[in-house]
Amino acid sequence: MFRSRSKLPTSSHISSYDTYYQPRALEKHADSILALASVFWSISYYSSPFAIFYLYRKGYLSLSKVVPFSHYAGTLLLLLAGVACLRGIGRWTNPQYRQFITILEATHRNQSVENKRQLANYNFDFRSWPVDFHWEEPSSRKGSRGGPSRRGVALLRPEPLHRGTADTFLNRVKKLPCQITSYLVAHTLGRRMLYPGSVYLLQKALMPVLLQGQARLVEECNGRRAKLLACDGNEIDTMFVDRRGTAEPQGQKLVICCEGNAGFYEVGCVSTPLEAGYSVLGWNHPGFAGSTGVPFPQNEANAMDVVVQFAIHRLGFQPQDIVIYAWSIGGFTATWAAMFQGPVLLIRRTKDEIITTTVPEDIMSNRGNDLLLKLLQFRYPRVMVEEGLRASIRKGKKLLP
């Protein structure tokens, strides 16, 4: 928990570390034990399939072996509960923590400007931060049938069938094993490989860096943190830096930054538009740092929707003054938010060794071709059938000159 720049001591001999909340001995040691237990639990969770297989091969999963183990586990849980109580006692005896709790409870009861200003002086578990913006808050969405429901915003439509094919019951049965396998892989190992930033152990290792980056945005850039509630119930952690009051004209433009699969707004691509003088709105993927949920495609689109609505209806930016800037997999949410039926410009380096799948000289292997083909197939599904796709691929060198 840290205080913002307005609360920092003015004495030059006091380091910035001294301005952080300093827990007393009881709270400090109890919190260290609970943090260590949390890390061990996370390691056990990810290694549980291998551990269960090993225990089964060794014959340790019998009832005679499981019952004593459950006794040990119950004793350990009671000890951890006692440690949590000791941490609570240590916090309650600390006047600084009691002052923080008083401000937090007052903000939950009444989210006035003064209460929010005082609460912004602290950094704490974001789950306790009050919601600043609700997805239904825009008046145009209240009672609207065309807006997003609690199931989510419009995301993808079914892939068009090729000419001469039909979605029969037999075809569905044939696809079922692959669909089940894909679902299991995507919801277990696949999601964590695609979005490693959602893994707890990685977040735990990066936490000091994230806190330092967040402190820099608040103290040096006057950033304002906010919690947005998406239509699926996920809470999205955002940071807004307002440059509209500066002399730089680009401060009237807002850049919404979409981070990569292991990126956080605290240390991500927000630094580029900040250095250029733009107003910036950064947000974390669902399941990243302060944001809740998991980064599945629908959840990502729901999060992007509430971020854009927040920028328009709460921050007061017009759509024509908003620029969406993305890095890596953040391009998914960026293209979803920016999609429209007008002209689209794709810029590709013809000798880009990063996004080719063969040698750099082979333009046909550049992934920009696939992006263009998908765009054409989406806009012209009746024209871009299988024969049309083959013809386009054969002329791939002319797709993106």
TrEMBL record:
Keywords: Hydrolase, Lipid metabolism, Membrane, Transmembrane, Transmembrane helix
One GO cellular component term noted in the UniProt record for this chain: endomembrane system
Coiled-coil features, chain-numbered ranges: none
GO terms for biological process, alphabetical: monoacylglycerol catabolic process; phosphatidylserine catabolic process
Pfam families in UniProt: ABHD16_N
Reaction catalysis annotation: Hydrolyzes glycerol monoesters of long-chain fatty acids
Cell compartments where the protein resides: Membrane
Protein name: acylglycerol lipase
Lineage: Eukaryota, Metazoa, Chordata, Craniata, Vertebrata
